[in-house]
Design brief:
Blueprint lengths: L11 H17 L7 H5 L9 H19 L5 H4 L17 H20 L6 E4 L3 E4 H30 L1
Antiparallel strand pairs: 1-2
Helix pairs in contact: 1-6, 3-5, 3-6
Protein name: DinB family protein
InterPro entries: DinB/YfiT-like, MST-like
Pfam families: MST
Length: 162
Amino acid sequence: MSRDVPDTTAPERQILQDLLNDNREGLLECVSGLTEQQARTRLVASLTTPMALVKHAAFAEKVWFHVTLPGRTRAEVGIPETIDESFKLEDSDTIASLVAAFRETCAESDRIAAAYSLDDVGEHSRLGPVSLRWMYVHMIEELARHAGHGDILREQLLASRS
């Protein structure tokens, strides 16, 4: 699937936001064209499935932009304490519900981040002080990695269907 190339000469913050948005969309492509059953299929020993990657990505967005940046707790935000829990799918989870939740989470992440400068610092429970700039770079990295995982899983699932 083809996405627009972000402006490569934009100011730093716009570049970071554009790359983050691009990787968000790349991650969502991993569930595109899959059935609900395919999107839940485990092809690896971990809980990683295309749907679980989307659910985990929403969790990661919340950890950094909803918890760390404004100084809230995971309980306040309503997310699990462990990463493994963020991959667990509920029977009620669907592709559509997880995509909608992810998009809503990302929109809220963008609203929260807009109130801060790139040099502003939040306190992460494990890493200590981290700047918003670092959070952007980390999320770009994390979503790119998971989009790659999802792309491979999607390719395997679609190949098994033919």
